[in-house]
Design goal:
The termini are far apart. The chain folds into three domains: 109 residues; 287 residues, Vaccinia Virus protein VP39 (Rossmann fold); 184 residues, Alpha-Beta Complex (Adenine-n6-DNA-methyltransferase TaqI, Chain A, domain 2). By secondary structure, the protein is α/β, with parallel strands linked by helices. Strands 3-2-1-4-7-9-8-11-12 form a nine-stranded mixed beta sheet. Helix 1 packs across helix 6 and helix 2 packs parallel to helix 10.
Length: 631
């Protein structure tokens, strides 16, 4: 019996055969596999399907190429370039691929099986070679459930990739007992990805599936976009757009967002969000996966707020770092569910945004199963809250909060505050961390050639422990000569009372996990020190107790508030983002923080003693080695 895994294995075998026989690159092999699968589907419908010619894969390949061109002439969905390219595989390789699928009838396989097999296939080395980052099925499913699509809705993914959102939408509609014809639309700039979506969704019966390969951020009505792609044309938008692309103002018409400190370039994510809202009919909804930086980046705060001209936020879902790590990226993500206004007056009505914090998505960073997933039932629960139902408390209770009412038109402006709710991010009088901090800056990392055995000591991430700085030198802790001059500025010279924390790592969960205080710079390291670029300095303002600030920064709620502001696929924390975190006045003045500050003082004293003992031991070892002539 054919299963998703056995079919995925056939895809992999065929893919390997193409690469081994004809030396194709991963992208080229995937293109040829998709051409073959197009042929295979059409050939199974013919009166005389081609069978492998025993002992002559070359003859089989020749016959397939001729038949492929016949099917192309009658197809309205195959890429036009296939007609001029044809199948690029050698006849022998093509014949061997056909042998792999000789006993498989693709058209007899069920709705889930073929698409599941494709995702299994793309989750391996093929995905890495192609740079494909698939949205995990578990996440897609809950977003779809929360938006509750029906066959009466017109649904689009303007950055469809392999079509996972659209496939799950059709499956949800069918499983809900809705037998109407589903209307789904797909756009992707990459023809290869659109062909994957075609293979994923195009074979489904009972759907109206329109698609095109184009830049979905182009101007409405342009010749490059189809006539069906218009403003206010869809009821639902579900998408996970590309991250980290910087758009040039001269190449797009989103002028209302090219202000507010963004200069002539702007992150594609915020533009995709605008386009999603534009595509919606009044009252329509969008579910969009975004990097967390879209909410925390101060440079696009004004652009973020302007989204409130089009619609309002219904729900914000935060996801842990491992959500996408198993698919090849460390970007920390959120899901925003938003709705387009039914009329202009709706911006003034009160709404209660929903915040869902997911810590466990059912798998770890390697993709292995992790019990206790908080995704189970999330979509249904969010849908109920959005519909105004009075629901029992979600388990675990800390996962979902219905926030205080606010004007709908302010919800995009308030996204950062919503993200910080309950995580050390609330303030009674509007004070922020910048009111407690005189200086926040990251250091500088010298080239490898600049390190020396002695000179100016540089504190590195490895010197931070979270319980005190380890001042014992290790490899590459010193810079000397001209290389040390860049560290002589006052803001890079450490002094007693400075706090140091991890500010750059391969995942956001490591940011600010180690925070230490400088109590003294030991004479053994030269009495002076600076720090590298992966470390951030926070210098308390005059009159602020550095140990109280240390206790506050180390508090789990504040650590999370800091991590919420991490940017980039490789996690980076920027000084301005830290300074903009709102001060939780009650926590700052609490007995718990005062007691923790006292414990931190004692911990620092013990750490100084440990460093002194370590230096004494090092000196004793060096003296004994010299005494006995071992050095």
């Amino acid at each position: 019996m054919t299963t998703a895994r056995s079919l995925a294995s056939q895809y992999q075998t065929a893919h390997n055969e193409m690469r081994n026989a004809d030396g194709l690159q991963p992208q080229e092999a995937l293109d040829e596999l998709l051409k073959y699968l197009f042929f295979k589907e059409h050939d199974e419908k013919s009166e005389s399907p081609i069978s492998p010619i025993k002992g002559s894969p070359k003859a089989t390949g020749e016959a397939i190429k001729k038949r492929f061109q016949e099917y192309l002439r009658h197809s309205k969905v195959a890429p036009q370039k296939w007609g001029s390219e044809g199948i690029a595989l050698s006849d022998v390789a093509l014949g061997k691929v056909h042998e792999v699928f000789a006993q498989t009838a693709l058209l007899d396989l069920g709705l889930d099986l073929r698409s599941s097999a494709l995702r299994v296939f793309l989750n391996g080395s093929v995905r890495k070679g192609l740079g494909i980052f698939l949205t995990p099925d578990e996440i897609v499913r809950e977003i779809v459930v929360a938006l509750n699509p029906t066959s009466r809705d017109s649904i689009i993914d303007p950055a469809c990739g392999s079509g996972t959102f659209l496939f799950e939408t059709v499956r949800y509609i069918r499983e809900s007992g809705d037998l109407g014809k589903a209307s789904i639309s797909a756009i992707d700039k990459n023809p290869r990805m659109l062909q994957l979506a075609e293979f994923n969704c195009g074979h489904l019966d009972g759907i109206d599936f329109q698609r095109t390969a184009a830049d979905s951020l182009g101007s409405f009505g342009s010749d490059a976009l189809p006539a069906w792609y218009q403003d206010e044309s869809f009821d639902l938008v579900l998408t996970n757009p590309p991250f980290g692309v910087s758009l040039d103002a001269s190449t797009c018409d989103f002028s209302q967002y090219l202000t507010g400190g963004t200069g002539s370039r702007i992150a594609s994510e915020i533009v995709f969000f605008e386009r999603a809202l534009q595509l919606l009919r009044p009252g329509g909804m969008v579910g969009i996966v975004l990097p967390r930086s879209v909410i925390t980046n101060q440079r696009i705060a004004e652009a973020r707020a302007k989204l409130g001209k089009l619609g309002f936020v219904r729900a914000l879902i935060t996801l842990p770092a491992e959500t996408f790590s198993a698919t090849g990226t460390q970007t920390t993500t959120v899901v925003v569910i938003a709705q387009r206004y039914t009329d202009a007056q709706e911006a003034d009505t009160l709404t209660r945004p929903i915040l869902a914090r997911i810590e466990n998505v059912g798998f770890d960073s390697t993709g292995r199963f992790r019990p206790g997933s908080e995704l189970a039932g999330l979509g249904d629960y969010l849908r109920g809250l959005i519909d105004g139902e009075d629901l029992p408390e979600f388990e675990p209770a800390s996962t979902i909060q219905v926030l205080d009412p606010r004007p709908a038109g302010k919800t995009f402006h308030d996204l950062e505050a919503i993200l910080g709710t309950g995580r050390g991010g609330s303030s009674k009088n509007g004070r922020k961390l910048r009111d407690l901090i005189e200086l926040a800056t990251t250091g500088a990392t010298p080239p490898r050639s600049a390190y020396a055995d002695e000179g100016l000591f540089l504190v590195k991430v490895g010197n931070l422990s979270g319980s005190g700085i380890n001042w014992v030198a290790r490899d590459r802790n010193f810079v000397a000569g001209n290389a040390s001059k860049r560290y002589t500025k006052a803001e890079r010279q450490l002094r007693a009372g400075d706090l140091l924390l991890t500010s750059s790592a391969h995942a956001s969960k490591y940011i600010a996990k180690k925070v230490d205080i400088v109590t003294q710079i030991p004479a053994e390291v030269g009495g002076g020190a600076s720090f590298v670029g992966e470390v951030m300095l926070l210098r308390p303002a005059k009159g602020v107790d550095p140990f109280q600030l240390l206790a506050y920064i180390r508090h789990p709620a504040v650590t999370q508030a800091i991590q919420d502001r991490v940017r980039g696929q490789t996690a980076h924390l920027y000084p301005d983002d830290v300074l903009e975190i709102e001060l939780h006045e009650d926590l700052w003045a609490s007995d718990a923080i005062r007691e923790a500050a006292n414990l931190n003082r004692r911990q620092a004293e013990l750490n100084d003693e440990l460093n002194a003992l370590a230096f004494a031991q090092t000196k004793l070892d060096e003296d004994s080695l010299e005494q006995f002539g071992l050095i």
